[in-house]
């Protein structure tokens, strides 16, 4: 396995503010949460990859997206074992598992153990943390 720190993205606060929209900055850098059902992408289906809006790292394959009914895009698994990092989030008086981009550290959302088969996981992700890259035909 490759060194997971080799391609880390480090930017100053000013550089992040310049690179991101106000809402992306609030969610990715300040661990905010967008309003449920505020994203058109929540219901989007199709093929392609979901990339980190902060650094472009591949995070989720659209193939693993499902409608959780929560109002946020949900996935059963990440694009790879080193796509995200997890840590315990004890805000709001509860313990949850936060997920963030392994490459830039941007806050994505949380993962819960109440998803469908085959993983039983529900990665509940802020859509503003993502940018969708549609699959292209290679034929």
Provide a concise account of the structure shown.
This protein is mainly beta. The chain has a single domain (13-134), classed as Metal Binding Protein, Guanine Nucleotide Exchange Factor, Chain A (Beta Complex), CATH 2.170.150.20.
Number of strands: 9
Structural class: mainly beta
**Which parts are unreliable, with pLDDT below 50 for 5 consecutive residues or more?**
none
Tally of individual domains: 1
Q: What coarse outline follows from CA principal-axis ratios?
A: globular
**End-to-end separation:** 31 Å
> For this structure, what is the CATH homologous superfamily?
Peptide methionine sulfoxide reductase
What share of the residues does DSSP label as strand, in percent? Answer: 25-35%
CATH class: Mainly Beta
CATH topology grouping: Metal Binding Protein, Guanine Nucleotide Exchange Factor, Chain A
Fold and architecture overview:
There is one protein chain. By secondary structure, this protein is mainly beta. It has a single domain (13-134), classed as Peptide methionine sulfoxide reductase (Metal Binding Protein, Guanine Nucleotide Exchange Factor, Chain A, Beta Complex). It is 10% helix and 29% strand. It has 2 helices and 9 strands; from the N terminus they run H-H-E-E-E-E-E-E-E-E-E. The strands form 2 sheets. The protein has a 6-stranded antiparallel beta sheet with strand order 3-4-8-7-6-5, with no helix packed on it. The model has no long low-confidence stretch (mean pLDDT 90).
Topology:
Layout: H1 13-19, H2 22-28, E1 48-52, E2 58-61, E3 65-66, E4 74-75, E5 84-89, E6 96-101, E7 107-112, E8 122-125, E9 130-134
Antiparallel strand pairs: 1-2, 1-9, 3-4, 4-8, 5-6, 6-7, 7-8
